Amino acid sequence: MSKNLLLMGLPGAGKGTQAENIVEKYGIPHISTGDIFRAAMKEKTPMGVKAQQYIDKGELVPDDVTCGIVEERLKQADTKNGYLLDGFPRTLEQAKQLEIMGEKLDKKLDAVINIDVDPDILVARLSGRFICKSCGATYHKLYKQPKVEGTCDNCGGHAFYQRSDDEPETVKNRLKVNLEMNTPLVDFYSKLNLLHTVAGDQNITDVTKDINKILTNLD
């Protein structure tokens, strides 16, 4: 049975790792919007050319062009046994268009996996990174502290800094924006009985096991 899947989750929820596991286990392509946008523009597909025109002007690519690029990708032969969407849809309108597209191509979604993690945990995960000023070695408050506190393992330097992207306030704002975007999609897929929520604050192996259980039950 084909596996037409959508993977959802806030930044830091561990989607990348789980996407790799799903793609490897089921042999389906990982369709990440960033990747397919770049590919469509490079190959100058009809929708890729349109997208490039908006990007060159510094404008947001409208939904119909974004959906067109996804449709071009879903028509490719490697999706015949399924696909894993990641980063699309981002809006309710895109979600509705995806339903229409799935119907038209006979590739409707079978399941939406939502990796759910408490935003406070995500702030700790995402804002924990710090960098050695001397050599650029990266560390993490939770996962990778220097062997000797305050001393870089790599060069012995004592000065560290944090990128502005990794500062807690920046991270909180990013999560807030993503949460506001995701909530209507979670409701939409819940009403369609496609939503499967997995607790993402467990260890990675247990998250993988839970996802595998859901996907096995689809057969």
Report the major sheet. 5 strands, parallel
Estimate the mean pLDDT confidence.
Answer: 93
Output the CATH homologous superfamily: P-loop containing nucleotide triphosphate hydrolases
* CATH first level: Alpha Beta
N-end to C-end Cα span: 6 Å
Number of helices: 8
Element string (H = helix, E = strand): EHEHHHEHEHEEEHEH
Helical percent range? 40-55%
CATH architecture name: 3-Layer(aba) Sandwich
Estimated share of beta-strand residues? 15-25%
Q: Overview of this structure, please?
A:
The chain is α/β, with parallel strands linked by helices and 219 residues long. The protein has a single domain, classed as Rossmann fold, CATH 3.40.50.300. Helix content is 48%, strand content 16%. It is built from 8 helices and 8 strands. The chain has helices spanning 15-26, 33-42, 46-56, 63-74, 92-105, 119-126, 168-191, 204-217, and strands spanning 3-9, 30-32, 82-86, 111-116, 129-132, 138-140, 160-161, 195-199. The strands form 2 sheets. It has a 5-stranded parallel sheet with strand order 2-3-1-4-8, with helices on both faces. β5 (129-132) and β6 (138-140) form a beta hairpin. The mean pLDDT is 93.
Summarize the structure.
The protein is α/β, with parallel strands linked by helices and 219 residues long.
Features:
globular
Indicate the topology.
Blueprint: E1 3-9, H1 15-26, E2 30-32, H2 33-42, H3 46-56, H4 63-74, E3 82-86, H5 92-105, E4 111-116, H6 119-126, E5 129-132, E6 138-140, E7 160-161, H7 168-191, E8 195-199, H8 204-217
Parallel strand pairs: 1-3, 1-4, 2-3, 4-8
Antiparallel strand pairs: 5-6, 5-7
Helix pairs in contact: 1-8, 2-3, 2-4, 3-4, 4-5, 6-7
